[in-house]
């Protein structure tokens, strides 16, 4: 019988490996890249622990070499999606009643497997399938994913320990029940870690999930699923269901057992899921928890007292790492006219130095954007700017999809603070800059606040710390993750729990303890040790 009260201390973050040529991690990664590059994996659905081959097949290709097929995956239809709902409901009967330390042991084993055997596998799949360079893959599919596993176990131990006060003659306690039904986890293409966490946070707390991976990230997501199985996750706890987003969304939202949606992706998709839940609201067993982290129009505000080199570095890396496809990527900048020429010059210097191309060549800082639809969308914004009297392409702007979906790091300079690309999310390596008059700092801050519907990330630069503080106050609701003298991206689990409000999501802070509360239904239990039998108030007694 296990009756120990286990201690799960705050973990250290997983160290980012250097991948120097000849290092053990580099040798392992190179071998795995070659293996995956030379293999075409057949990916089934995994429902209730069973592999299902529907025969409706789609392909996963390398975005930087789009004729190269990495995998063929089977697509679920209505029948399989309904099977997945049944499998999740069946598995929860045991999983919800499994001791939480056993669930935690499986999650901790996932972390260990990923830190060792699966590290090159997940990194290679993320590099090839999502076009990330070594560093971008390492911080995502290895380190952040491992951190999510380990931190969440620590946070769960703290959550379960939150208990009410006991009085004389009674025992009070709170039982953190998992939600009553299944959780639909809908994942984006851009972070392997997010796809993992959307499932495994609810799972740690006793829930079961139906996992809709993003089409373009199916390969890395499939390897995650294999890792969960190897760690001992019971059949049906996570059901891996590649499918059409609109179809799985509709069927799951129509199920009375939908207990929660854990979503990361675009604002438009999240709003459509929310609407479907609204349409079905009278049919559910309980109100589904809707947790969504969505789009952004993340900004850098530069005060005239700023350091030019620091701003240029933040703008360049913040806007162009992973081709600007991070929800937190800098995509608009407000720069005083006095500093802008020097900042731009420095950015141009960086742009002339970096290389763009295949992920297999480790010299490439920039790789490809995810797919043709995304490429065409980015091109449309660049073309719009080229043809507009209010804007000019002052850096980059070239795009080529002959071999892969390549877009140069691009700066649009505009005289219109409401220019289309100052307001709308593009999700590519495009930064729009509005140079403002140095004496209009506060007018420009106000403009920033009112320009875009989003509220995800933002940063302010300035050496004048008192001014920076005033600006930070004025921008209170513009970002859920706010940075001072740093770029607005690069949140780390346990350090900067992540999420925004306004049109950017429900701000439930992935990588922090608050997120866990969304996946439990507390039941408070009062036990009276000696039950009373006399109804009289004391003063009524003779
Ligand atoms: P997307 O909305 O196109 O797709 C996300 C997922 O939703 C995919 O799995 C897709 O297949 C699925 N989907 C599409 N239509 C659906 C529907 N009707 N019902 C159910 N599911 C549906 O987003 P994406 O292109 O994969 O990711 C990019 C977006 O994600 C950007 O807007 C970015 O800002 C956002 N994002 C936000 C965060 C954050 O933490 N705020 C993190 C990463 C990405």
Distinct small molecules bound, one entry per kind:
nicotinamide-adenine-dinucleotide
By secondary-structure content and strand pairing, the structural class works out as alpha/beta
The N- to C-terminal Cα distance equals 52 Å
| Shape designation | globular
Q: How would you characterize the largest beta sheet?
A: 7 strands, mixed
Note the total helix count: 16
Number of strands: 25
Which stretches are poorly predicted, pLDDT < 50 over at least 5 residues? none
Helix content: 25-40%
Strand order of the largest sheet: 16-19-20-13-12-22-23
The proportion of strand residues reads: 15-25%
What radius of gyration results from the CA coordinates? 25 Å
Mean of pLDDT: 98
Architecture overview:
By secondary structure, this protein is an alpha/beta fold. It has a seven-stranded mixed beta sheet, with helices on both faces. A five-stranded parallel beta sheet has the order 9-8-7-10-11, sandwiched between helices. The protein has a three-stranded mixed beta sheet with strand order 1-5-4. Residues 186-191, 194, 212, 214-215, 245-246, 249, 264-266, 269, 272-273, 293-296, 327, 425, 427, 456, 498-499, 504-505 line the site of nicotinamide-adenine-dinucleotide (NAD).
């Amino acid at each position: 019988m296990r009756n120990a009260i286990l201690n799960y201390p705050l973990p250290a973050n997983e160290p980012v490996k250097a991948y120097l040529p000849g290092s053990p991690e580099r040798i392992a990664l190179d071998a795995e890249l070659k293996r995956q590059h030379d293999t075409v994996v057949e990916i089934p659905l995994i429902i209730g622990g069973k592999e299902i081959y529907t025969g409706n097949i789609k392909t996963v290709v390398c975005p930087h070499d789009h004729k190269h097929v990495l995998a063929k995956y089977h697509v679920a239809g209505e029948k399989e999606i309904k099977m997945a709902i049944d499998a999740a409901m069946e598995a929860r009967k045991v999983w919800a009643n499994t001791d939480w330390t056993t669930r935690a042991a499986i999650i901790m084993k996932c972390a260990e497997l990923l830190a060792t055997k699966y590290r090159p596998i997940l990194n290679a799949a993320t590099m090839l399938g999502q076009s990330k360079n070594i560093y971008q893959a390492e911080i995502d599919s290895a380190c952040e994913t491992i951190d999510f596993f380990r931190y969440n176990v620590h946070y769960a131990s703290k959550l379960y320990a939150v208990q009410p006060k006991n009085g004389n003659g009674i025992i009070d306690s709170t039982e953190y029940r998992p939600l009553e039904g299944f959780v639909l986890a809908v994942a984006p293409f851009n972070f392997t870690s997010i796809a993992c966490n959307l499932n495994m946070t609810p799972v740690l707390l006793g829930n079961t999930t139906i996992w809709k991976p993003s089409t373009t990230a199916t390969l890395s997501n499939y390897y995650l699923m294999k890792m969960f199985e190897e760690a001992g996750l019971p059949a049906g706890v996570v059901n891996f269901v590649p499918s059409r987003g609109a179809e799985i969304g509709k069927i799951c939202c129509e199920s009375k057992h939908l207990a929660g949606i854990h979503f990361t992706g675009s604002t438009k998709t999240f709003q459509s899921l929310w609407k479907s839940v609204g349409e079905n609201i009278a049919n559910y067993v309980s109100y589904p928890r809707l947790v969504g982290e969505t789009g952004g129009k993340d900004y850098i505000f530069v005060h005239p007292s700023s350091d030019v080199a620091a701003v240029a570095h933040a703008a360049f890396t913040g806007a162009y790492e992973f081709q600007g496809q991070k929800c937190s990527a800098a995509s608009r900048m407000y720069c005083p006219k006095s500093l802008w020429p020097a900042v731009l010059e420095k950015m141009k210097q960086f742009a002339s130095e970096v290389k763009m191309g295949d992920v297999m060549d480790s010299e490439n800082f920039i790789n490809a954007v995810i797919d043709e639809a995304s490429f065409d969308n980015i091109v449309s914004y660049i073309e719009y700017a080229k043809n507009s009297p209010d804007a000019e392409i002052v850096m980059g702007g070239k795009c080529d999809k002959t071999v892969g979906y390549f877009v140069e790091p691009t700066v649009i300079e505009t005289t219109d603070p409401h220019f289309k690309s100052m307001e709308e999310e593009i999700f590519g390596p495009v930064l729009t800059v509005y140079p403002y008059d140095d004496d209009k700092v506060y007018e420009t801050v106000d403009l920033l606040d009112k320009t875009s519907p989003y509220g995800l990330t933002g940063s302010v630069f300035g050496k004048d710390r008192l001014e920076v503080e005033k600006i930070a106050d004025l921008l209170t609701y513009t970002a859920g993750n706010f940075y001072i003298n740093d770029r607005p991206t690069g949140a780390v689990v346990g350090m900067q729990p992540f999420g925004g409000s306004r049109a950017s999501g429900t701000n439930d802070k992935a990588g922090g303890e608050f997120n866990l509360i969304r996946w439990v239904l507390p039941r408070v239990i009062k036990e009276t040790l000696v039950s009373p039998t006399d109804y009289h108030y004391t003063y009524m007694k003779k």
